[in-house]
Design a protein that fits this description.
The chain is mainly alpha-helical and 204 residues long.
C-alpha cells in the first residue's frame, strides 16, 4: 500500500506567507491608493519586520509584479467561465465580453490601475507576470475574429472604447452606473461601424 505523498511543509508555509503578503498589499492599496503602498505598512499588518519581507519579495516592485500577475490570472479564470456561454450573435457576444471586463475593472480601482494604467513610476511587469495579460489580449483577438472582427485596427478600437468607458466611470462616478449604462449602446455603435449583423443566423 502506497503511503501519502511527502509534503514540503517549508514550501507550503512560504507560499502561504507570500499569499498573505499579497492580500495585505491589496488591502492597503485599496485603502490608501496603489502608489501609497509601503513595505513598512505591509509588514506591520502581518506582524513581521519590514526587512523580513525581503525573504519573500526582493523589493516593493516585486510585490507589485506579483499583484499584477495575480490580477490578470484571475481575469483569465473569469474568461474561462464566460466563454462557453458566449452567444453566436456577434453583438450579444461582444456585449458580454465588454460587460465582463468592464465589471471586473470598475469593481476594484487599485486593481484596474495596476493592470491597465501606468500608475507606479518605474514599474514594468516581468515577462512571467505579463504573460497572462498577453493571453487575455490574444484570446480576445481570437474571439473577435470568430465574430467577424478580424482587422487589427478594429480590435484596437474596441479595447480603446472599453477602456475609455471604464476610465470615465472610475473617474467621474465611482460606485455608480453612469457610464456602465452606455456600454451596450457603445458596443452597438461599434458593431454598426463594422456592419456586424444582429445575429449569425441567415436572414430571411
Amino acid at each position: 500500500m502506497l503511503g501519502k505523498p511527502v509534503r514540503d511543509r517549508k514550501t507550503e508555509r512560504q507560499q502561504a506567507t507570500r499569499s498573505e503578503i499579497l492580500e495585505t498589499a491589496w488591502e492597503i492599496a485599496r485603502e490608501k491608493g496603489l502608489a501609497e503602498l509601503t513595505l513598512r505598512d505591509v509588514a506591520a499588518r502581518i506582524g513581521m519586520r519590514a526587512p523580513s519581507l525581503y525573504s519573500y519579495f526582493a523589493s516593493k516592485n516585486a510585490i507589485y509584479d506579483a499583484m499584477y500577475g495575480q490580477a490578470w490570472t484571475r481575469y483569465l479564470a473569469v474568461m474561462d467561465a464566460i466563454e462557453p456561454t458566449l452567444s453566436r450573435s456577434p453583438r450579444a457576444a461582444l456585449k458580454t465580453m465588454a460587460r465582463t471586463f468592464f465589471d471586473y475593472a470598475v469593481a476594484d480601482l487599485a486593481r484596474h490601475q495596476l493592470m491597465n494604467q501606468r500608475t507606479i513610476p518605474g514599474f514594468v511587469p516581468s515577462p512571467e507576470s505579463y504573460a497572462p495579460a498577453v493571453e487575455v489580449l490574444e484570446r480576445g483577438r481570437v474571439e473577435l475574429a470568430r465574430l467577424g472582427v478580424q482587422d487589427a485596427g478594429a480590435f484596437d478600437l474596441f479595447t480603446a472604447l472599453l477602456g475609455g468607458l471604464i476610465n470615465a466611470q472610475q473617474a467621474n462616478d465611482p460606485g455608480g452606473d453612469r457610464w456602465a449604462r452606455l456600454l451596450d449602446e457603445a458596443v452597438d455603435m461599434f458593431a454598426d461601424h463594422l456592419g456586424l449583423p444582429e445575429s449569425t443566423r441567415r436572414r430571411a
